[in-house]
Design goal:
Length: about 120
């Protein structure tokens, strides 16, 4: 398998896991399930179920759109989750934030390379 396809597959899996996690929270705990968070963060996290899954789909079908949307989502996610952890102190566990930061580095670091077709 070609290395670019492996990258797109791993990125898609990452966004699928994120989207399914938020989707589970929405089904298990109802709409806007993050009651401990300010409403704007609650709404953002709730909307990630659809946006993460859309990104995973686009990374296969419309690669450039997937790269752009994925970079915007993971950048905003790291920013908002860092704010929630460091400023608001409403997140206790940093493992998800560290994984999101790693994904951000991979997205930004590989975006130019993935942008161009062979």
């Amino acid at each position: 398998m070609e290395i670019k396809k492996v990258y797109f597959l791993l990125l898609s899996i990452s966004f699928t896991v994120g989207g399914l996690t938020h989707l589970f929270h929405n089904f298990a705990y109802g709409f806007l399930p993050y009651h401990f968070a300010p409403i704007w963060i609650n709404l953002y996290w709730t909307m990630l179920d659809g946006f993460d899954l859309l990104t995973a789909y686009l990374l296969f079908r419309k690669k450039r759109s997937g790269i752009v949307l994925g970079t915007v989502i993971i950048s905003s996610n790291v920013l908002i989750n860092s704010y929630a952890y460091h400023i608001l102190k409403i997140i206790d566990d940093t493992i998800a934030l560290q994984l999101q930061t790693l994904l951000l580095g991979i997205m930004v670091g590989s975006a130019i390379w993935l942008w161009y077709k062979d």
